[in-house]
Design goal:
It is a single chain. β3 and β4 form a beta hairpin. α1 runs parallel beside α2, α1 crosses α8 and α3 runs parallel beside α8. By secondary structure, the chain is an alpha+beta fold. 35% of the residues are buried. The radius of gyration is 17 Å and the shape is globular. It is built from 9 helices and 4 strands. This is Glutathione S-transferase family protein. Pfam families: GST_C_7, GST_N_3.
């Protein structure tokens, strides 16, 4: 069956940047599955597959449609059990839920303080108005004001990564010697920042930086194929 992954892009359709789409893309590579990608801007998402979801990623596998990155990972695990496991059992699935909760409540908000204006600037013109209006309403301020003090927010973010740092300084991945979906969850957040914004915050020599670089090299350099924002 043909597999298609729908991903979020900006003006440059060769640069998918959504953290959730990267989780799904890495999960597909982890499983060793062949797939094609289709792209959409923010305002095009409601048109995908007849409006099946308000969010991406969306996976089409033959006649099956699955939305949400974690649901996609669970679907791949259940549908292709003979391929490398994303969770290595129910305990790994539950722990991945915890990692996702931590990432989305700790890392994502911090990265938004760095990158939200750069994300806007990289969007197609048709999406910029939607993005600015929706984000400024949610944030209660302008995008420019929201990122104005981002340099002062680097140290707090690096400190918040200490749980990850403590693990990957002792082992290659959260999954041990090889990655699991938990790795792709956090990788997706940092890849979002790498692709969407030229603002750099991971210091050289940090174990988190070394882990991120290992993740970029996974699956024949899948993550590294999209250059960092310049």
């Amino acid at each position: 069956m043909a597999i298609t992954l729908y991903e979020l892009v900006g003006r440059d359709t060769a640069r998918p940047f959504s953290p959730h789409c990267w989780k799904a893309r890495m999960a597909l590579r982890h499983k060793g599955l062949d797939f094609s990608t289709a792209t959409a801007g923010f305002t095009e998402i409601p048109e995908i597959e007849g409006g099946v979801s308000k969010i991406v990623p969306i996976l089409r596998d033959g006649e099956r449609l699955v939305a949400d990155s974690f649901a996609i990972a669970e679907y791949l695990e259940e549908t292709y059990p003979d391929r490398p496991s994303l969770f290595r059992g129910e305990g790994g699935r539950a722990l991945s839920r915890f990692v996702e909760s931590w990432s989305q409540r700790t890392i994502h908000p911090a990265i938004a303080r760095f990158a939200v204006l750069d994300i806007h600037d990289g969007l197609a013109e048709a999406d910029q108005l939607y993005f600015r209006q929706s984000r400024e309403k949610a944030l209660g301020t302008t995008l420019e004001a929201f990122v104005a003090d981002r340099a002062d927010r680097v140290e707090p973010l690096l400190a918040s990564l200490e749980p990850l740092r403590a693990i990957v300084s002792k082992q290659a991945f959260l999954g041990g010697e090889s990655p699991l979906f938990a790795d792709y969850i956090v990788f997706g957040a940092l890849q979002w920042a790498r692709i969407a914004s030229p603002f750099r915050f991971l210091p050289k020599g940090d174990p988190v930086t070394a882990w991120f670089e290992r993740c970029l090299a996974l699956h024949d350099g899948e993550g590294a194929r999209v250059p960092a924002a310049a």
